[in-house]
Write a structure and sequence with these properties.
Order of helices and strands: EEHEEEHEEHEHEHEHEHEHHHEEEE
Largest sheet: 5 strands, mixed, barrel
CATH topology of the largest domain: Rossmann fold
Distance between the termini: 173 Å
CATH superfamily of the largest domain: Succinyl-CoA synthetase domains
CATH class of the largest domain: Alpha Beta
Helix content: 25-40%
Strand order of the largest sheet: 3-4-5-7-6
Structural class: alpha/beta
CATH architecture of the largest domain: 3-Layer(aba) Sandwich
Number of helices: 10
Radius of gyration: 52 Å
Number of domains: 3
Length: about 375
């Protein structure tokens, strides 16, 4: 479609759409070229048809936005990360609707790690060998912090996210905020100083280091050695919430806990008050039920004891009566009277009980069960 200007007297005027179309048409005449740079701001999503990234010149900081169809990008299987140096083959193009200039990438080849990424990898290996990232040295966060420290940028969205999350989850929480540089050459030293000051404040027992998302270069201060060592050495647990979930500066590895976002950090440092109240309510109900059950068990035990005490005298008397009856029975069985009742008799002579037949005509006394009588031996 031919681009035509509008005539206003002797002046030719192009509409924005016509101008963009003309420039876009002219750019298509340029040849495809290879461009070298460091990958930054790599963005992709399952629903996006293209993968977007920025090529940056590490020497002077010049940037070039680029895009590539997602299918072609995935087919390369490069697993690119921010900071890697690449060669990109493509052609310039203009997105007419917004007038955005970009490089339409046709192919990508890994050239090597960028200078910054290589330095970070060397530092990471060094600090890991010293044990700064070891899991056993990481401390648990306090369940109910007395006072929360927050180190973040001035008027940063990260600060608002952390404070809003803490206020929504646990309104009684006390937060001490230290604002400092979080980007640029002075940021690392400023953050170290702010962390030192806030950790020295009384009752501060957890600190959140927060910064929102940014480019690979924006987050470089959080991988500087002095800051990473400081995060590992401070006396209170530190939660690192720097960048987005895919960003992993070295301070994340040295911190006691890493949060994927500042909002997630707010959820980590305080409990949910409503959840606590609900759990307290359940605990109170459980305690009341437990107390009632204990009282009921004690009541039943006392009632059983009282019943046993009430029955004890009768049982004792019954046992004594049975014992006496048993003794009485044994005594009766051994009594001479019982023997006499079975038809026996006791014969007494002048010398006592007769055990052998006396002489004829002797006088004896005979005792039977019902009485006594005299007799003469025949």
């Amino acid at each position: 479609m031919k681009v035509e200007a509008l005539e206003y007297g002797d002046r030719k005027v192009y509409t924005v759409a016509a101008f963009n179309k003309g420039v876009a048409s002219w750019l298509t005449r340029l040849p495809t070229v290879w461009i070298e740079g460091e990958v930054t701001e790599l963005r992709r999503h399952e629903r996006w048809a293209s993968v977007f990234f920025t090529l940056k010149d590490p020497e002077i900081g010049a940037c070039l936005p680029a895009s590539m169809p997602r299918g072609r990008f995935d087919a390369l299987r490069l697993d690119l990360r921010d900071g890697e140096r690449v060669h990109v083959f493509g052609r310039p193009e203009l997105y007419e609707a917004r007038g955005d200039f970009q490089l339409r990438a046709l192919s990508i080849e890994r050239f090597g790690l960028g200078a910054h990424l290589a330095a970070i990898e060397r530092l990471k290996a060094k600090l890991a060998s010293e044990g700064l990232f070891a899991a056993e040295r990481k401390r648990p966060l306090p369940r109910l912090p007395q006072r929360i420290g927050l180190v973040t940028g001035n008027d940063a969205a990260a600060k608002r996210d952390v404070l809003a999350t803490i206020a929504a989850r646990f309104p009684p929480a006390r937060v001490l905020v230290a604002e400092t540089y979080v980007q640029g050459p002075r940021a690392a030293a400023a953050i170290v100083d702010a962390l030192g000051r806030i950790c020295a404040e009384p009752e501060v027992d957890v600190v959140v280091l927060a910064r929102g998302g940014g480019s690979f270069e924006d987050l470089l201060p959080f991988s500087e050695e002095k800051l990473v060592r400081a995060v590992a050495s401070y006396p209170v647990p530190i939660v690192s919430a720097v960048g987005h979930e895919q960003d992993t500066p070295l301070c994340d590895l040295a911190a006691d806990v890493r949060a994927s976002t500042p909002t997630a950090a707010g959820r980590l440092v305080v409990p949910d008050l409503n959840d606590l109240l609900e759990r307290l309510g359940r605990s109170r109900s459980s305690l009341q039920i437990s107390v009632r059950r204990s009282l009921e068990r004690e009541r039943q035990r006392l009632a059983h004891g009282r019943t046993r005490l009430d029955r004890a005298p009768a049982l004792a008397v019954e046992r004594k009566r049975a014992s006496l009856e048993h003794a009485h029975g044994r005594l009766r069985a051994l009594s001479p009277r019982a023997t006499l009742a079975r038809g026996y008799a006791i014969v007494r002579g002048g010398d006592g009980v007769v055990t052998s037949p006396p002489a004829s005509g002797s006088r004896v006394d005979v005792e039977v069960a019902e009485g006594t009588f005299g007799a003469t031996v025949d």
